[in-house]
Design brief:
α2 packs parallel to α3. This protein has four helices and eleven strands. The mean pLDDT is 94. It has a seven-stranded mixed β-sheet with strand order 6-3-2-1-7-10-11. Strands 4-5 form a two-stranded antiparallel ribbon. It has a two-stranded antiparallel sheet with strand order 8-9.
């Protein structure tokens, strides 16, 4: 069994090898899979990560555009990193973005924070997952910490370009997801 660190390194290297066409195809397939598996009432608050382009994270802008089309009353928030914590801030497609120090797109301040207890769905990035629905991210544990926020009861949705589970043991601080969407 590979360590989480080895899986992270290998998976990220493989993802970066995807051609532009393969990457776009998988991102579009992810949108279709998501729409088939998740149905909204239409007025929920959805937290969604914005993709780090150089890491070839799934193109969530495609998903956001589709969700806006299907559910015009959905409200979105996106994560922002302040210090070593992740917060959620209100966001819409019209709001301009800048890249933080990790090249993660974030809204330009000032922020309108969203309480974790008000979020219905959190769409989270991941490099890999196992059969227990535990994820491997970039190793900072920001999502695991966020999921333990007092009052958070939202659905934890993994959004992954790879369809194959990896074999790894979850750590004590890891939080399992509720569902994982793959192409």
């Amino acid at each position: 069994m590979l360590s989480k660190s080895e899986i992270r390194k290998t998976t990220l290297a493989n993802r970066k090898k995807l051609s532009h066409e393969e990457y776009e195809y998988l991102s579009k397939q992810l949108v279709e899979s998501f729409i088939q598996q998740i149905a909204f009432k239409g007025n929920e608050i959805v937290s969604i990560f914005l993709p780090i382009k150089k890491q070839k994270e799934p193109n969530t802008f495609l998903l956001i555009e589709k969700l806006v089309e299907l559910y015009p009353n959905l409200r979105f928030c996106v994560p922002v990193i302040i210090g070593n914590r992740m917060f959620q801030v209100k966001w819409s497609l019209e709001r301009p973005l800048i890249s933080n120090i990790w090249d993660i797109p974030e809204p330009i301040p000032p922020y309108e924070f969203v309480e974790s207890m008000d979020i219905n769905y959190v769409i989270t990035p991941l490099l890999a997952f196992n059969d227990g629905l535990f994820r491997i991210g970039y190793g900072k544990g920001l999502y695991d910490k966020f999921f333990t926020n007092e009052g958070f009861r939202g659905c934890k949705v993994g959004y992954c370009l790879s369809s194959n589970p990896s074999d790894f043991e979850a750590d004590d601080h890891d939080i399992s997801l509720d569902v994982i969407i793959t192409p």
